[in-house]
Every structure is written in structure tokens, then in C-alpha cells.
Design goal:
Elements: H1 12-18, H2 22-33, E1 38-43, H3 51-62, E2 66-71, E3 96-97, E4 100-101, E5 105-107, H4 114-131
Helix pairs in contact: 2-3
InterPro entries: ThsB__TIR-like_domain, ThsB_TIR-like_sf
Domain Thoeris protein ThsB TIR-like: 21-75
Protein name: TIR domain-containing protein
Length: 132
Amino acid sequence: MGVIEGEEPVRPNTWEQIKCTEKGVKDWIDENLKGKSCLVVLIGSETATRPLVIYEIQKAWEQGKAVVGIFIHRLNCPNNGYGTKGENPFDQLIFKRGDDVIEPLVYEPDSNDAYNDIKKNLSTWVENAINQ
């Protein structure tokens, strides 16, 4: 979407190498959380059922990072059409800072133009989570 600059996605060969083991994926997650202030979780139909997603959310929170969720079921895929809305993975966890329970911010993009809504607002949503 061009909103986050300087972030190169994992190359397919690298991903194939690390995804072979749970430890490989956890090490990759741990390494990629370094130097970040916010974890953005794109919430699809199966996100909440993925143990490694829950691991990533927990690790980010334990490290004092902000977390923000964005439902992506309204993005149109040319091959598969629209997805189904998944469960919120944050509902499985309790987020505390000191004695305060924090409710992570979760956004559901505009149903008429989800792609452009995310593109336009992603940086604001990340800042909102950091300032929370």
C-alpha cells in the first residue's frame, strides 16, 4: 500500500527456510520485533486460531510495544473475492500496564473502500495505538 516505507517483506525463500520449525518462526518473530514500537495485526478469517500470532502479540506486549488490529475481510482478492470476518485475536489475552487493563485498538475499514481506508488511516491508527 506504500504506507509503511523501508519495510521489505520476507522473501519467499527466506520464509520457506524459517517456517519449517516453530522455533524458526518464533526466532524470526523475536528478531523482527526489535526496534519496533507497534505491532500491526491484520485480522483475517483464521488469525485468532494461529498460535504463532498469539505468541507474536504476547511478545510485543511483554516488550512494551503498542498493538493494533485491523480486520481485512473487506479487502477484495482478485482470486477469491471477499473473505469472512474472523474472531478478534486480542479477545484471548488480557493486556495490562501496571494495574490498568488496556483494550487494544481494533479497526474495521470502510466496507465501501477498505483498501483505501487502510491506506489513508494506517499511520494514524498506529499512532493512536502508541499514544494509548
